[in-house]
Amino acid sequence: MFNRENKLHVLIGPEGGGKSMVGKRVASLQNLTYVSTGDILRNYRDNDKTVGGMGDICREMFAKGDYLKPQMILDVLEKWFKENKINKNGMILDGGLRTLEETEGFQGMLDKTGKRFFVDVICIRVPGWKAYERSYDRQRFNDTPKEILRRLGSYYDNLGLRMVTIRNNNWPVHIIDANETKDEVFQNVLGVVGTKNKLSCGLFSYLRSFR
Fold first, then answer.
1. Which CATH number goes with the domain that contains 51?
2. Torsion of Cα atoms, 110 then 177 then 22 then 203, to 10°
C-alpha cells in the first residue's frame, strides 16, 4: 500500500538551476525531509578526520571543483538512508541521478537500504547558457570557466540516456521550466509534490529533444 513516508522526490537539474532553493522551500512548507548530496559531502569534508576516509576524499574533490565518483555517491546515499528517519510526509533528495552510472544503480542502492521507496523525479529544465551564468556568478568552488563548463557538459551529455533509464524504472517524471520566475518555479514544484504518482506528458517531448 502507498504510504507518503515512502515517497522520494528526486530533484535533478544542472548546477545553477535553483534546485536547492526550491527544494528547501517546498520541503519546509510541506514538512518533508530535505537532504542534498552536496550537504552530505560537505559534512564529510568538514567533520570526518579519518585518515584516508571519506573526509579526505571529499576535501580533495572540493579542492578540485569536481564531483564524487558515481559508486561512491551511491554508497554515501545508502548509508544516509539506512541511518536516518524520513518524515511521515516523505522527502526531497536534491542532487541525485547526476550521471548515467548513478541513475542505473539508484534502484539497487535503494533496495539495499531495506526500505521501500516510491520514487518520482522532478527535472528542473534550464538552458545551458543560463546554468553557466548562474554558476559563474556564485562561484561555489574555486571555479574557472573551464571547470564550470566541464561539469555542465557532463550533466547535459548523458541526460537523454538518464531519462530513458528513469522511464524504464517506471519512475514518474515532471518537467519544471526554470526560465520562469522563482515563485512560479516554486509553485510548479509544489504542485508536483502535492500530487499522486503521475507521469508528466512533458517527458516524451523532452526525450524527443535529445534525438
1. 3.40.50.300
2. -20
pLDDT at residue 151 tops 70:
yes
Instruction: Point out which residues pair with 9 in neighbouring strands.
Output: 92, 120
Give the range of the structural domain holding residue 12, as residue numbers without chain letter: 4-208
Model confidence pLDDT, tens digit, residues 101-127: 999 999 999 999 988 899 999 999 887
Per the CB < 8 A criterion, the answer to whether 14 and 152 are in contact is yes
Q: Provide the domain count of the chain.
A: 1
Q: What is the CA radius of gyration of the chain?
A: 17
Question: 147 vs 92, which has greater pLDDT?
Answer: 92
What span, in angstroms and rounded, lies between the C-alpha atoms of 160 and 171?
A: 15
State whether the Cα torsion 127-154-107-23 is positive or negative: negative
pTM of this prediction? 0.82
Rounded CA-CA distance 65/116 in Å is 34
Give the pLDDT score at 40: 93
Specify the 3-state DSSP secondary structure of 151. Answer: helix
Minimal CA–CA distance to 133: which of 32, 38, 17, 49? Answer: 17
What pLDDT score was predicted for residue 29?
Answer: 92
